[in-house]
Amino acid sequence: MTADFPRNSPSPQDVQAMDKAHHLHPWTNFGPFEEKGALVMSRGEGCWLWDAGGRRYFDAIGGMWCTNIGLGRREMAEAIADQVTRLAFSNTFVDTTNEPAALLAAKLASLAPGDLNRVHFTTSGSTAVDTAYRMVHYYQTAMGRPEKTQMIARDYSYHGSTYISQSVGKRPGDRVPFFRYQETGIHHLTAPNPYRAPEGMDEAAFCDWLVAEFGAKLAQIGPEKVGGFFAEPIQASGGVIVPPEGYLQRMAAICRQHDILFVADEVVTAFGRLGHWFASEAEFGIQPDMITCAKGLTSGYLPLGALIFSDRIWQAMAADGARWFTSGFTYSGHPVACAAALKNIEIIEREDLLGNATRVGALFEARMKALEALPMVGQVRGRKLMICVENVADKATRALLPEDLDVGTRIADTCEAMGLMVRPLGHLNVMSPPLTLTAEDVGMVGDTLERAIRQVADDLVREGVKLG
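Above: the chain's sequence. Below: its structure in token form.
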């Protein structure tokens, strides 16, 4: 039986009660949710959020790696409303299109590196990765290599939550025994995390080891059976893992040698998070065959994803004019979402938010790096506006705190009480603030997070936990 729906504007308590009674959240943790329910947000402006009770929080998470231009932009609302009035929906199947979709495809082609001039619109990053997986199969078959169906990715990667995209990813905590995953045809290599390299290996030796592992994996599977390699330039939700110098370039070279498509998952790193439209070439010097993107594409104002791929792939798939590419979604190239993306890109360009991300991102890196002086912080890593704090029990051995202490959540909860939102991921805390971040914001975030870590460390010591 459904509860009575409030006749007037619901109170914050009513909203929370309805949410608790009816809403299954992504990644719901059933015990705490059943006990406490959810924090109800009611308003956002710039980098700030207000909950339904009127409390204000600085959102250093950036929504979910996505609110790049900040919240509450009136010109975004106007662009969206104008498109809704003009053309609220038009499908893009087969031979129909709309102006915003065509304009956005051309714009993305102009921003993407090299010959990545073709765009397939999706609804999210997950569906962009799902489409890339299918396109690898389609392309390899079109090239006369139908046996190249195997895929390779990395541990601690996150590529989405559709059946295939979550099977491609392999982040601790995402795989639960109640779901099933693709167990055949997808292989995983060691995460390129220098902080967790085998004992005694410096970064250069670790890079050599990782590249050798890739070669060994190909020899084991047979390179003639491997169609694609999926890699985030920086592994975001896996812990902001920045690979060793030269790693991605060497992996890409091996892919080219064996006709393996390099799929760069830039759902997080694209549209300014590292100070570039796309990070693959600008930050890491690689030319991928495909780029998946979403999040910053619209700065979270509307759902939209895209797979950007090379002219070479298009030409191979289209060589036989009788073929059909039977993949897509009702909302592929949705005119309102595409209009939002166009306005979002215009704002980033006009306000030089890429430049701001580079300048203020350097300050943010430096302030966060200073947290390594704290006894419980083992490493601060990341680049520009994409930072992770790894909390440890012992800085010398890098041993982790017991999982049941849930130190990342303790720190995030303490920050929240101080008016700052950071994201907990096990023993980690990650941040991806909007590109509009200021130097003053950097100081506030750094000082607040430092106070929170110190407070949690003091609490743990009082509880008898030994911190080395």
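The mean pLDDT is 97.
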